[in-house]
Amino acid sequence: MKVICITSSTSAGLEQILPWIYYHKVIGVTNFFLFVEGKAASPLVSKVLESIPNVKLIHRTKELEEQQAKSRAWNETWLSIFFYKPCNHELFVKQSLNMEMAIVMAQEAHMEWIVHLDTDELIYPAGTSEYSLRQLLTDIPEDIDTVVFPNYESSVERDDIQEPFSEVSMFKKNFDHLTKETYFANYKESSRGNPNYFLTYSNGKSAARVQKHLRPHGAHRWHNYMKTPKELKLDEAAVLHYSYTKFSDLTSRRDRCRCKPTKEVVERCFMLDFDRAAFIIASTVSQEEMLNWYREHVVWTDKDLNMKLMKTGILTRIYAPMVIIQGLKEVGVFSSLISSVQKSLSKDTFSSSNEAINNSSNAIDAMSGVSSRKNGKKQPRMTFSNVLEATNISRDKDTNLWAMPPLPAPTMEKIDSYI
User: How far does the signal peptide extend, from start to end residue (predicted)?
Assistant: First the structure.
């Protein structure tokens, strides 16, 4: 049996983290190493998360920062271009340092595979007969070091989404899972006036075998200090990225960054064009104007266009996560967990500081209206792309490669570099 762990850096609340954890438990993930801040680090939320077997929380303390300040990564060039820059770059470095620590934890816990995911992402193990990440990784050839899951991006159809995992079923497929002809023939309509095909990144996420000299290669990939890893990109399985699924994501992302909302400044703060545009909008216009902008650029309200892109294969419906999470809710997994922690707290502690748990509990209880409709398509056979070497450069230069940042999807002007 494959022993699989996920590591994540998160500041989310229970309404997001609990479904995320238990969904991944259902598909075969055994352990979680969560680096928590914000809501996720609050005493009561932490107590709930720590009550789940094989979930380890690492709080951002002074001791942690002092330990990470001694990391080998600060003396390596692969991460250096992201140092001492604000917002997205700072988060990228923090994620990489957290991933580095998670590797050690994974080794100590005798994990076989490690995955880095954000808590707005779900693994979609398509191509397996049992809808199982464990089965998928068991079938990976032994000489493969890292596996890439191309990402699909959520395409919300309403502006009032509250629980993305339970309300969103439409996704835009990755370039890697489309023919070149289909992708570029539909590029303009698929982009809908936005800077790129996807709102945010397009370069997927990665799982790695836990082995000696493993290191992060930024938030999207893993690498190795001593060799060029063999990488395999999956033809059917994917990561579902729930990006800007809630209108409030505009302001919450804005509030995490102190940059001035000018074009020149946001170039340094954010790596992707849509994030830059969204930050400026959220910082400079009224709530009504922001909502209109969100509806125009994020919400898919044109049903005719949606149907057309569905027929071409650009858009697809994926119901499995909704069904799994709704099933977990209906049998009381989330509510009973929160209730048991509430009961274990002293009355004084509970009465003075129970707002965080109650808010998250209410949000979880509000999950409703999830379609039980299942995808009627026959489960596809698992296939693999050709095994690719991550790079072709010599081993002595291997440790100096730049970490892979979040990358946009290929554009019409840059097609030659993707063929």
Answer: none
C-alpha to C-alpha distance for 365 and 65, rounded to whole angstroms: 36
Q: What whole-number distance in Å separates Cα of residue 368 and Cα of residue 322?
A: 10
The answer to whether position 41 is within a domain reads: yes
Residue 125 in tokens: 């193990």
272 pLDDT above the threshold of 90:
yes
Encode pLDDT of 165-181 as tens digits: 999 999 999 999 999 99
Could you tell me the CA-to-CA distances from 324 to 150, 153, 219 in Å, in that order?
22, 19, 27
Q: What is the pLDDT of residue 380?
A: 33
pLDDT at 342 over 90: no
Residue pair 319/371 in contact by the 8 Å Cβ criterion: yes
Residue 15 lies in a domain: yes
CA dihedral angle for residue 409, residue 414, residue 416, residue 417, rounded to 10 degrees: -60
| Per-residue pLDDT band at 1 (split at 50, 70, 90) | low
Domain with 394 in it: 4-153+201-241+317-418
Number of domains in the chain: 1
